[in-house]
Amino acid sequence: MPMSLALCNSPVLTSGGQSTPLPQQTHVMLLPESNKENIDSQLAWQAPSSSPSPLTPTLRNNLKCHYSSKDGGTEYNPDVVASKAIEDDGPRSSKKKGLCASDLNPVRKCIVQHAYPHFCLMIAKDSFPTEKQEYEWAMAAWYLGLGELVESHGYIGSTPPTQSKVMLITMHVSQLRGQVKIATQDTVDEVFHFKTSDINDDKVVNATCALIVKLKAKKAFIYKDFSNLTLPASIFSSELIKKVLCKVWFGKQQDSEGITHPMYFKHGIPLGVLTLICTAIS
User: Fold this and answer.
1) For 219, left (φ over 0), alpha (ψ -120 to 50), or beta?
2) Does residue 52 form part of some domain?
3) 217 burial level (CB within 10 Å; 0-12, 13-18, 19+)
4) Residue 91 in domain
5) Alpha-helix runs per DSSP H in the chain
6) 51 in a domain, yes or no?
7) Measured between alpha carbons, how far is 92 from 99 in angstroms, rounded to an integer?
8) How many CB atoms lie within 10 A of CB 87?
9) Mean pLDDT for each consecutive 10-residue tract of the chain (282 residues)?
10) Which of 72, 110, 153, 160 lies at a CB distance of 3.0 to 4.6 Å from 82, suitable for a disulfide?
11) Which domain of life is it from (predicted)?
12) Which residue range is the domain that position 261 belongs to?
């Protein structure tokens, strides 16, 4: 079913008798789309009550038989979480310099697959973390992925990550920034109709440059109407931001990270996500 995404802002904040078009909270909702032209008036999203599982019945039934002492597991205890990754066991093939997902046994591969979305959404809230933050978030994401296997698929082991498996997760830091950048590049022309094909026409080039200057002045591109920045509650409401947000986090229908992991958006769109999008646009 086609869907559309929108940002709904709460009333403006007031300070010293002056109103500021800054939303107290930004919400995201997803509704069946009846008319794309009405996206601004229809924007609302409600996550499903349960997250769909990416595991096939065959893999789910075989999880226990693939589990062994070689996997570094012990009896699962949700209250016991390793603070550091264990010694690296390296890739299966000596021909490879680094570990990749295909090198992992089925259990660890499933854990990594479940950990990816958690880590990416943690990174989205602060897309320029320190190495320490990256490591801590990757460890947390690993155990969240492990917990999902335990709760949803009856996995009966506690499997600590190795250093190389932590690196498999942390590599998504730059990957996420790249995804946002690509989504932004594809959307800017779509929204502002830059005529890049007429680069030899001085009038077109001058008009495009003038529009870019106007959009970047006072960060006008983040407002609903870049020609009128005084409209109440219009900050972060630009069509461009909404389209990029939809492409990156809500563009895969029911498999979108924003829908399968609604807990990261329960208080609305995190400021870090908006900051990442606006940085890419700028």
Assistant:
1) left
2) no
3) exposed
4) yes
5) 39-42, 57-66, 106-125, 131-153, 163-170, 172-192, 202-216, 239-249, 257-260, 271-281
6) no
7) 8
8) 9
9) 39 34 32 34 30 36 36 41 50 50 78 89 85 91 89 76 85 84 85 69 78 77 78 80 89 82 86 88 84
10) 160
11) Eukaryota
12) 3-46+176-281
**What tokens were used for 20?**
């500021």
Backbone angles phi, psi at 20, to 5 degrees: -120, 130
User: End of a domain among 140, 170, 200?
Assistant: 170
pTM of the complete model: 0.59
Query: What would the two tokens of residue 79 be?
Result: 């209250």
Instruction: Report how far residue 75's alpha carbon sits from residue 85's, in angstroms, rounded to the nearest whole number.
Output: 18
Query: Given this model, what pLDDT does residue 270 score?
Result: 86
Question: What is the rounded CA–CA span in Å between residue 72 and residue 86?
Answer: 9
Cα-based distances in Å from 2 to 30, 36, 95, 212, 265: 10, 10, 45, 32, 21
Confirm if 21 and 12 have CB atoms less than 8 A apart: yes
Of the three residues 170, 195, 230, the one that is the final residue of a domain is 170
